[in-house]
Amino acid sequence: MKNKCFYFKNKKITIIGLGRSGLACANLLCGLGADVSVSDIANNKQAEKNALSLQSKKIKIELGRHTRDFIKARDLIVVSPGVAEQAAPLVWANELGIPVIGEIELAWILCPATVIAITGSNGKTTVATLIGKIIEASGRKVFVCGNIGTPFGAEVNKMKSGDFVSLEVSSFQLEKIQYFKPKISLILNFTSNHLDRYSDMRQYLAAKKRIFMNQDESDYLILNKKVPEFEALSKEADAQVIYFSQNKDLNANQAAVLAVGSILGISKETCRRVFAEFAGIEHRMEEVAQINNIKFINDSKSTTADSTLWALQNIKQPVILIAGGKDKGIDYSIILDESKKKVRQLILIGQAKEKIKSALGAFVPVQEASTLERAVHLAFSRARPGDCVLLSPMCSSFDMFSDFEERGRVFKEAVFSLKENESA
User: Fold this and answer.
1) What is the pLDDT of residue 108?
2) Does domain 286-423 have CATH number 3.40.50.1000?
3) What are phi and psi of 93, to 5 degrees?
4) pTM for this prediction
5) Which fold has domain 10-98?
């Protein structure tokens, strides 16, 4: 079905979810001449803003509810990654025999470029960004897409044969692929995550494995050699399997990028130069400011305990840790040993605060805050010169924010407000 733009012309298509990827799909399909409608259970400022941006197009939109009228008599349903399998529109589509695909599948059908797909429990954004940078450094055109900000569907019309896509792919997105077939697929790691959506780790791994299900012997599968669960995957895959591992010169993310570079004929020297020049990404261990010799770090991208553990291990000074959000069914106690050594104060926000307190509260002083802004002020009042105030939530953001980026922006704005007050 690759490159069949005409396939969507005059098709009746409903998009479920009007977030970033849903908006990209609506614009893409409208441009292809499809009869588009959008349904979103949310009715917040972001959904209203996205709906307003579609006002000039002949797109039917419902916010704050899902109705069967938006599903029946449709040719195709395109679902956003956050929508659960048991959501009413998907149940109705199944009952009516209407095919359901995700944004990744839709964009891939139309994509003329070579796709490099990256998944894993942690590190996807950093690795997708670094892969984009080494391809760019080799003089080739690359689009970096996925959960990191720009949806695949928003960029696919700009792509040409010979271009590359460095695509961050979540397990949620992989659930809805049918024909998606990257040239290179990369699974970085596998740790406890999303157990609010999956019944167990086996089901979570099954979703991740879909990244290589359509690959053949002309394609490549790159795996982390140090993950026990990956040992059997080489027997399941038809693609050529390449392993990477962390060593004294390269961290795991860099080793993974180097493996991609070797397939694409990009020299180690070019890769290492990119690594040396890489300043990091927003919302991942991002140093925001120093106030009275207290450092503020925005690690809003951390939505797992493993990611927060890594953050704590890489901070030398005492930490005032701000954590919490929407629980994903993970084990927060894995940060306990490091917290005993580093965390002077734990400040909790969001729905998961009681669960985190239960896991850590007997060993680390805990306080609660009703908002992130109050948490920042409380952290500052508890911090001493030489400390680090770290936002590293271990949770998704959806109980309080539209996404981790909004959460990170709110944190930074609160820190800047503190800085202005101290300077006044």
Assistant:
1) 95
2) no
3) -60, -40
4) 0.83
5) Rossmann fold (3.40.50)
